[in-house]
Write a structure and sequence with these properties.
Layout (H helix, E strand, L loop, with lengths): L35 H23 L15 H30 E5 L14 E5 L1 H5 L3 H6 L8 E5 L5 E8 L4 E5 L2 E4 L2 E5 L21 E2 L4 E5 L9 H4 L2 E2 L3 E10 L5 E2 L5 E4 L2
Antiparallel strand pairs: 1-2, 2-11, 3-4, 3-11, 4-9, 5-6, 5-8, 6-7, 7-13, 9-10, 11-12
């Protein structure tokens, strides 16, 4: 701590009796001495001060936290715990908001259109990174692009969110025959479970109709439960800007906990 020393010089006032004092009291820090006696009085005081200052400079700070016998005051402990909790909450909230806005979105399955692979009530994480990087060099290098077989979440204007699977990409040709999709003139064989007993079509994609070409920035999507799914057979092409992300993880129920990969498929010449 800085210490300020006030050293005013004493002033001799007039003697009311009219008699002058020949002896004056010495002041600390005074530069003048009138006689040997004054010098002897002042000098020891100056030496004592210098000695005290020298000793003060040698004092070192002792970290009481290293003292096994030191106990922190209870009020300070409580204050520190409260500060730690508040900091943890702020960090957790900030991280959650960042993840929600830019990385992952939680979704809940509602309806049977993706059975038998996804059921009502299951909880999923949808990656927004695919939406950010799809169509870029970074997306191509890291695999953050939309591909056939991917399960996506999208929202067509005026409608609620949908969860479907990509069947055809921009530039592909697609047609429907006997309930099966043909992409680029080849049978699109899906190596995952499907419910497709009725082999139904829709107003946009008619079974046995001519092939259609998917426009740029659009996709053709379909549900895994083809008998009940409301998908591109009725909705038509799905614009890329309507897509919210790719489903990458299922975190409920526990027995289905894990990553969601790309739906395995192959093309068969016909």
């Amino acid at each position: 701590m800085d210490t300020i020393l006030n050293n005013p010089n004493n002033q001799s006032g007039a003697n009311p009796t009219g008699v002058n004092n020949q002896t004056t009291m010495p002041t600390i820090g005074s530069l003048s001495t009138n006689n040997q006696t004054e010098s002897n009085i002042v000098q020891p005081q100056n030496n004592d001060m210098r000695k005290k200052e020298s000793n003060d400079e040698k004092l070192e700070y002792i970290d009481q936290s290293e003292n096994p016998f030191f106990q922190e005051p209870e009020d300070k402990k409580k204050k520190n715990v409260l500060v730690d909790i508040l900091q943890s909450v702020v960090i957790a909230l900030s991280l959650s908001i960042f993840l929600y806005l830019f990385i992952l979105t939680p979704n809940q399955v509602d309806g049977p259109s993706m059975e038998p692979n996804f059921y009502t009530g299951q909880l999923l994480f949808t990656s927004k990174l695919h939406q950010w990087f799809d169509g870029t060099s970074i997306g191509e290098a890291t695999g953050l692009e939309y591909n056939r077989g991917d399960v996506i979440v999208f929202q067509k204007p005026g409608l609620s969110d949908f969860i479907k699977r990509i069947i055809a990409e921009p530039g592909d040709t697609i047609r429907l025959e006997d309930g099966k999709y043909y992409v680029n003139g080849k049978l699109y064989k899906e190596n995952y479970e499907l419910d497709n007993d009725q082999k139904r079509d829709g107003s946009f994609m008619v079974d046995g109709g001519p092939a259609k070409t998917v426009p740029a920035d659009y996709y053709f999507v379909s549900g895994d439960h083809r008998d009940v799914s409301f998908d591109s057979r009725e909705l038509g092409w799905i614009k890329r800007d309507w897509i919210k992300g790719r489903v990458i993880f299922r975190f409920w129920p526990i027995d289905k906990f894990g990553f969601i990969g790309n739906g395995d498929h192959e093309f068969i010449d016909v």
